[in-house]
């Protein structure tokens, strides 16, 4: 009897530590994997896809950490960073860069651009303290709409990007033409377990982990610690002589940069650069992923990003083929994705004022 | 017997093992003004919470003893019950809707209605308001108070004195009002308004209403009350007819401790005749603790105490010096004028602050002991950092070594320096706050309410720690609501009243002196003499 009761408290402690959503959704993913195996779907393919999608989305999810830590909440304005990345990508193509040169120029150009834009966005957030998340969402939507005009109006010359007739950029730009398709994903990539084994996109994972390391390091620096303190307890930070507003701006600059680099890495993994309204909804899966990883709207760690992006992307890459096998001809997996994605965001937002006691 | 409107018999209350009220007996007669007086934490609010059946009482295990109203035992489970028994309260903070008229405020949720076409179907909630009748009622209530103001005026923009009267009018308007409680009603009023209010109270008493009057202004009590009850540390000290006593006696009873103050003189104390901090005309806009022009001169090596009742501004002084709340005036530290409203430069110049709001301002509750201790020194003095190329990273080893040293020096009881601060006991949390301040190696330490919310044993440890620091040469300014504490370690004590220094007393001054100063009676006397 005693043993039993001990075991249950142990289990509760684990649930508490990892977090209920993480366990629930992680468990659901494993269940789907088993179901997929039973239905004759290759587990290796499912896992390969999971790793690929996790690598593509990883840096976008990572962009949530600085903004959450600084107290401005999940960066619902991720499209702001994404648009910076897209803008840099498009210009790199316009100037005729291809292959690795295209990748480096895109990233190198996107960073200063994101710094400026992130600074302005940070200033905006400081002006609207208390309703950051709502403002962020609409800032994201607005900038995507504004950039729709830009994609049409800027007189780009490159034949790789324009419509075949008329002016403006295409909605989808193929990257294979400029040698950018999967350039990182295929760098040093290898397969575990023979011909049909699990594919590891080494280059893409390396850059994801590098970004993770940078963010992790940053939050162990003087400046990063000040930002975290300002996020957890503004009164404490203020009494220690910290400029909270400056910290929030820095964090959102970092978040915007991650959004920009994130979309470039995403595009190369996907093989296409998507413009116009494509970035509109991209913040939500990233927010959902970090929350599933165990973050809250006030606290996030790099480990939450890694766990979250694997579980979240794993769930959907697995759910699609499994659901299609089970219910032929339906779009059930997309519905499921929406329910889980928005459900987890809603859940996390209801927890905001709970705090810890 | 039957002339006792209200009797509280043997009322006791404890919050999780901590007795806050011990065997209180109060009797209120018809038409009597009964004053309740006591320092902060004496148990006045708890007593009122019991009388009004507030949920805090019932969710924490109820109370002992009985309440009788007109000789019959009353069972008050909620504020609504209290209202039904005819008990009303005039709040210290006004509970009025600014956009409504006076009449609407007075009649809120007690509207008089008449049936209309739809109400038979949809119920009483949709009946038409009987504005005329309500206006008449309101007029009557206002007339009782000699208020000539029209009942259809909006509340927003009225002077505070009027708002107070509207609150009272609302209580009078309730049918069957027998007992009215005034909770420090004059605290926010100007002198003439206060005088009007006291007159109104007398008038209400003549109409047969029993009045419980909570105040710390002795003069008012002497002026209007018939009977006065003194509470101290949850104990019923005495109930006296006001005729048989005077304000000196009341002041003494209010402050005097049954516990003796053990004050040992510091053996190697050396106060140098050198001013370390010079404050001139300091004003601080701290909500609820406004400072309105304080002058203070602190000598190197002394412990200066700042005392006074809550809301009088004593807490604002340290917060103002440290730049946490907007301040103006002149502060000279070590002969140099220090910038106000800038916490960073205050800390840099050698000041450190242990805040009264331990959990809010003082600590990062979710972080470890070591990060809490190192935080300010890292951010302000660039300690505990190592340069690795471009960015300054925290030096975990140095932080841990220092934290372990502090844990040993200050005797912080914890499992390790990695323990979450939020899981420590109050006394140990306070020591972490002190450790954080000491890590800044300050020359002057400001400590506010160092023993708030911690148990008696830990209190002594914290006070001993401060004394020890002082013996080692640290200058300390300690702000506290607990006079006994100030008297046990300070070299001199400033009493703050209404945002100004009421006076300075040596720690061994008689109780009555402290009591009078805290309630501002001296001040008023002085004014009378001058005028």
Extended strand count of chain A: 4
Terminal Cα span of chain A: 30 Å
Mean pLDDT of chain B: 84
- The whole-number mean of residue pLDDT values of chain A reads 86
Class derived from helix and strand content of chain A: mainly alpha
Cα shape of chain B: elongated
- Give the strand line-up of the largest sheet of chain A: 1-4
SSE-based structural type of chain B:
alpha/beta
Structural summary, described in words:
The complex is a heterodimer of chains A (357) and B (531). Chain A has 357 residues and is mainly α. Chain A contains 14 helices and four strands. The radius of gyration of chain A is 21 Å and the shape is globular. Residues 1-7 and 353-357 of chain A have low confidence and may be disordered. Chain B is built from 20 helices and 24 strands. In chain B, helix 6 (131-144) packs across helix 7 (160-173), helix 14 (369-381) runs parallel beside helix 16 (426-439) and helix 16 runs parallel beside helix 17. Classes of the chains: A mainly alpha (357), B alpha/beta (531). At the A-B interface, helix 9 and helix 10 of A face helix 12, helix 13, helix 14 and strand 20 of B.
């Amino acid at each position: 009897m005693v043993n039993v009761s001990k075991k249950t408290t142990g289990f509760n402690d684990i649930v508490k530590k990892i977090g209920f959503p993480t366990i629930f959704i992680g468990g659901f993913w494993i269940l789907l994997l088993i179901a997929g195996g039973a239905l004759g779907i290759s587990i290796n393919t499912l896992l390969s896809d999971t790793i690929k999608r996790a690598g593509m989305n990883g840096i976008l999810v990572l962009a949530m950490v600085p903004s959450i830590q600084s107290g401005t909440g999940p960066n619902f304005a991720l499209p702001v960073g994404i648009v910076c990345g897209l803008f840099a990508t498009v210009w790199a193509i316009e100037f005729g860069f291809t292959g690795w040169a295209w990748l480096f120029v895109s990233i190198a150009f996107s960073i200063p651009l994101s710094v400026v834009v992130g600074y302005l966005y940070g200033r905006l957030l400081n002006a609207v303290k208390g309703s950051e998340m709502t403002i962020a969402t609409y800032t994201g939507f607005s900038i995507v709409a504004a950039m729709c005009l830009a994609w049409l109006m800027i007189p780009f010359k490159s034949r790789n990007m324009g419509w075949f007739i008329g002016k403006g950029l295409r909605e989808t730009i193929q990257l294979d033409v400029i040698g950018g398709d999967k350039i990182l994903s295929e760098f040093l990539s290898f397969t575990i377990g023979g011909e049909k084994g699990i594919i590891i996109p080494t280059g893409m994972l390396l850059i994801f982990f590098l970004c993770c390391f940078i963010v992790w390091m940053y939050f162990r620096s003087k400046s990063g610690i000040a930002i975290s303190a300002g996020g957890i307890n503004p009164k404490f930070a203020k009494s220690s002589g910290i400029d909270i507003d400056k910290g929030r701006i820095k964090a959102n600059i970092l978040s915007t940069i991650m959004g920009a680099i994130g979309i470039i890495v995403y595009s190369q993994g996907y093989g296409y650069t998507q413009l116009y309204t494509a970035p509109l909804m991209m913040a939500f899966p990233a927010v959902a992923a970090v929350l599933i990883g165990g973050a809250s709207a006030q606290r996030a760690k790099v480990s939450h990003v890694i766990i979250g992006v694997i579980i979240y992307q794993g769930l959907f890459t697995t759910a699609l083929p499994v659901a299609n096998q089970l219910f032929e001809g339906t779009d059930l997996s997309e519905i499921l994705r929406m329910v889980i994605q928005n459900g987890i965001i809603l859940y996390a937002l209801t927890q905001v004022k709970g705090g810890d006691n | 017997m039957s002339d006792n409107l209200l009797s509280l018999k043997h009322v006791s209350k404890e919050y999780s093992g901590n007795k806050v009220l011990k065997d209180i007996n109060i009797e209120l007669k018809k038409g009597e003004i009964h004053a309740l007086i006591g320092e902060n934490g004496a148990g006045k609010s708890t007593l009122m919470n019991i009388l009004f059946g507030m949920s805090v009482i019932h969710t924490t295990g109820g109370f002992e003893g009985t309440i009788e109203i007109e000789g019959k035992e009353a069972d008050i489970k909620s504020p609504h019950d209290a209202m039904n028994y005819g008990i009303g309260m005039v709040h210290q903070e006004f509970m009025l809707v600014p956009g409504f008229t006076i009449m609407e405020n007075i009649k809120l949720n007690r509207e008089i209605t008449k049936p209309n076409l739809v109400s038979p179907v949809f119920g009483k909630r949709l009946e038409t308001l009987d504005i005329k009748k309500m206006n008449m009622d309101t007029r009557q209530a206002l007339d009782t108070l000699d208020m000539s103001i029209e009942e259809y005026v909006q509340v927003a923009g009225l002077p505070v004195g009027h708002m107070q009267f509207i609150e009272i009018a609302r209580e009078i308007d309730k049918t069957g009002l027998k007992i009215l409680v005034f909770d420090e009603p004059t605290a926010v009023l100007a002198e003439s308004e206060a005088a009007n209010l006291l007159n109104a109270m007398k008038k209400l008493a003549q109409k047969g209403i029993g009045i419980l009057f909570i105040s710390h202004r002795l003069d008012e009590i002497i002026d209007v009350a018939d009977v006065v009850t003194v509470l101290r540390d949850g104990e019923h000290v005495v109930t006296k007819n006001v005729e048989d006593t005077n304000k000196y006696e009341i002041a003494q009873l209010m402050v005097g401790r049954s516990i003796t103050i053990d004050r040992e003189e510091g053996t190697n104390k050396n106060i140098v005749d050198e001013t370390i901090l010079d404050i001139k005309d300091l004003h601080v806009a701290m909500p609820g603790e406004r400072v309105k022009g304080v002058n203070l001169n602190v000598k190197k090596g002394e412990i200066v105490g700042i005392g006074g009742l809550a809301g009088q501004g004593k807490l604002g002084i340290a917060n103002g010096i440290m730049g946490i709340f907007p301040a103006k005036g002149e502060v000279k530290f070590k002969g140099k004028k220090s910038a106000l409203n800038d916490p960073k430069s205050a800390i840099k110049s050698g000041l450190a602050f242990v805040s009264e709001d331990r959990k809010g301002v003082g600590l990062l509750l979710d972080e470890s002991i070591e990060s809490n201790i190192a935080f300010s020194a890292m951010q302000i003095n660039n300690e505990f950092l190592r340069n690795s190329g471009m960015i300054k990273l925290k030096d975990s080893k140095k932080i841990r070594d220092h934290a372990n040293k502090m844990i040993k020096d200050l005797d912080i009881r914890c499992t390790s320096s990695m323990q979450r601060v939020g899981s420590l006991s109050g006394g140990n949390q306070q020591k972490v706050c002190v450790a954080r301040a000491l890590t800044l190696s300050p020359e002057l330490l400001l400590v506010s309410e160092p023993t708030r919310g911690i148990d008696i044993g830990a209190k002594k440890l914290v006070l001993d720690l401060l004394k020890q620091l002082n013996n080692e040469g640290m200058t300390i300014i300690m702000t506290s609501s607990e006079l006994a504490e100030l008297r046990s370690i300070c070299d001199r004590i400033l009493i703050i009243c209404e945002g100004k220094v009421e006076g300075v007393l040596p720690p061994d001054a008689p109780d009555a002196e402290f009591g009078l100063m805290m309630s501002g009676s001296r001040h008023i006397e002085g004014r009378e003499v001058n005028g």
